[in-house]
Design goal:
- A three-stranded parallel β-sheet has the order 3-4-5, with helices on one face. A three-stranded antiparallel β-sheet has the order 6-8-7.
- About 45% of the residues lie in helices and about 10% in strands.
- The chain has two domains: about 5-190, 3-Layer(aba) Sandwich (Rossmann fold), CATH 3.40.50; about 195-285, Alpha-Beta Plaits (2-Layer Sandwich).
- With about 290 residues, the chain is mostly helical.
- About 25% of the residues are buried.
- Helix 4 (about 75-90) runs parallel beside helix 5 (about 115-140).
- A hairpin with a 4-residue loop joins strand 1 and strand 2 (about 20).
């Protein structure tokens, strides 16, 4: 899985020893609280990518540029820590150097967060360093791309078209050097329906335990129905896991990670679900 840098590779790539399924999303970040389609943590919880992670010998992540342009390095590493903790809890066969993470390539396209090229590159260097440290904690493969600056295109962010083949070969040569476990797909595909049911039940239980630790409480007026509540949360971009309204007029919002919880806590004032705000919401949607 990659951001737009992965579009340099042709896909799918099929050899006698392995198959590479390449999914590239322009703008992809480790965590994106505003667009779930550009949030790696959200994508890997979807059915397609959940299946791929379950049946793959390795998972390769070519991500970083869009994150380092918007977050300081330490914040991004916290995000990666959260994501990999989730992956290892759900897909134990990917432990022990079965996850591959590339370093962030040079980027000189500044942002409001990093208005100078010096500030941006310092953040990239710090991110790559912290990523290397994290690789020892999680025992994943740290792939230092280390591409020259003159490979960058005129936008100083993406690999130039004339160097797409070199960039692609750099990645494919690395993948070719990896030992491939050809039994992983067969083993998992041969699971009985009962085994799959037990696995899904165990996974759902773990998810409930995660959500229990990331719960937000708000008082709520009886005027709010579940339908209005879900529409309101969707309209405001609140990414929650589950919700429930208790008889004492307390709303419980449960989240899958700390980042969505913090975002919701910031966006939802303590009185946001009172009767006054409900009337304002009705007037707004009419």
């Amino acid at each position: 899985m990659s951001d737009s840098h992965g579009k340099c590779l042709n896909y799918p790539i099929i050899t006698t020893n392995y198959q590479i399924d390449n999914y590239s999303f322009s703008g992809l970040q480790w965590i994106n609280n505003y667009n779930s389609n550009l949030c790696l943590f959200s994508l890997i919880q979807k059915e397609l990518f959940s299946f791929l992670l379950s049946t793959s010998s390795y998972a390769f992540f070519l991500i970083g540029t869009n994150s380092v342009r918007n977050y300081v390095a330490s914040e991004i590493i916290d995000q990666v820590d959260q994501i990999f903790s989730f992956i290892y809890s759900q897909y134990p066969h990917l432990t022990n150097q079965k996850l591959i993470v590339t370093t962030c390539i040079p980027c000189f396209k500044t942002t409001k967060r990093f208005p100078t090229t010096t500030a941006l590159m310092n953040n990239i260097y710090h991110y790559n360093y912290l990523l290397f440290i994290l690789s020892h904690k999680f025992n994943f493969l740290y792939f230092d791309l280390h591409i020259p600056i003159d490979w960058l295109s005129y936008d100083m962010m993406h690999v130039g078209r004339r160097y797409h083949n070199e960039f692609s070969n750099l990645i494919l040569n690395y993948i070719n050097s990896l030992p491939v476990n050809q039994n992983i797909s067969i083993t998992i595909c041969n699971r009985s329906p009962e085994a799959i049911h037990r696995r899904n039940k165990k996974r759902n239980f773990k998810l409930k335990m995660i959500q229990k630790n990331f719960t937000l409480r708000r008082e709520i007026s009886s005027l709010w129905s579940y339908i209005h509540l879900k529409k309101f949360l969707k309209y405001n971009g609140i990414r929650f896991g589950t919700l429930s309204i208790m008889s004492n007029h307390i709303l419980y919002l449960r989240f899958n990670n700390i980042f969505n919880l913090r975002s919701a806590d910031h966006a939802l004032p303590m009185d946001i679900f009172d009767s006054i705000h409900f009337i304002q919401w009705l007037e707004h949607i009419r």
